[in-house]
Amino acid sequence: MKKVTTLTMVIILAVGLVFLGVGIALGVSYTENARDMVEVQGTIVGFLGENPVVAYTLGDVSSTYVPSSSSSSYRVGGEYTLMVDPQDPYRVEDPGMQILSWVFGGMSGVLACLGLVIGLAGAAGIRRREELLGWGQRALGRVIAVEPNIHVSINGRHPLRLKVEVEHPVTREKITVKSHDLWATSFSPGDTVEVAFDPMNEKRYAVDAQEARA
Question: Percent of the chain at pLDDT above 70?
Fold first, then answer.
């Protein structure tokens, strides 16, 4: 189903761009804020909720800082690296923000690859179905149900699939097959529809159901 495949790919790519934007924003913000700061090794002295309280010393100044990050690996007495402004030791940046920017950037790459894979797989599936409709051995079937594909949802809507009862032209068995996803269809139970079968592979078929205009 071209529309569903395209929409799915576009949504995934859009989410990937959001992740990329967040990653870039976090990275730029950290780089700018941590400019001219020095690395200081702090010590976790307690917790404020799930966030560690880090004590550190720079020159004559001793203070504490509460990073926004949390982890089950943090322990009282454990080390925690901070970036501190030598001109204003109370101004602190958490290097974990830079790591977070890398995570968002990496997620954007994963989503971009996923969107590309879905697009290529969808296009390949459409091509194979259209080829089979061109040369497959056809049989006339009867629509017995029009069902939503609950495994796919776009904007709260599910695509539809035709459930078709047909006699296999090779095995002569009565079987039930399902169409590809359709965003909209003019078929109703009781309507007839052609099904193309691969004579060399009895399990391969394609229902000749064109998507109706929504």
Answer: 96
Spatial separation of the C-alpha atoms in residues 167 and 41, rounded to whole Å: 75
Q: How far apart are CA 135 and CA 199, in angstroms?
A: 10
- pLDDT, tens only, 95-107: 888 887 888 888 8
User: Mean pLDDT across the stretch 13-19?
Assistant: 84
In this predicted model, which residue has the larger pLDDT, 140 or 34?
140
Contact 143, 187 (CB under 8 A): yes
Q: Which residues pair with 205 in a beta bridge?
A: 197
pTM of the predicted model as reported, rounded to 2 decimal places: 0.55
Average pLDDT, the chain: 88
49 class by beta-carbon count within 10 Å (0-12 exposed, 13-18 middle, 19+ buried): exposed
Q: What gap in Å lies between CA 84 and CA 92, rounded to an integer?
A: 5
| Distance from C-alpha of 55 to C-alpha of 191, rounded to nearest angstrom | 75
Long-range residue pairs from 41-47, CB within 8 A, at least 24 positions apart, any chain: 41/79, 41/80, 41/81, 41/82, 42/79, 42/80, 42/81, 42/82, 43/77, 43/78, 43/79, 43/80, 44/74, 44/75, 44/76, 44/77, 44/78, 44/79, 44/80, 45/76, 46/76, 47/74, 47/76
- The Cα 185–Cα 183 span in angstroms is 7
Contact 154, 44 (CB under 8 A): no
Burial class (CB in 10 A: 0-12, 13-18, 19+), 171: exposed
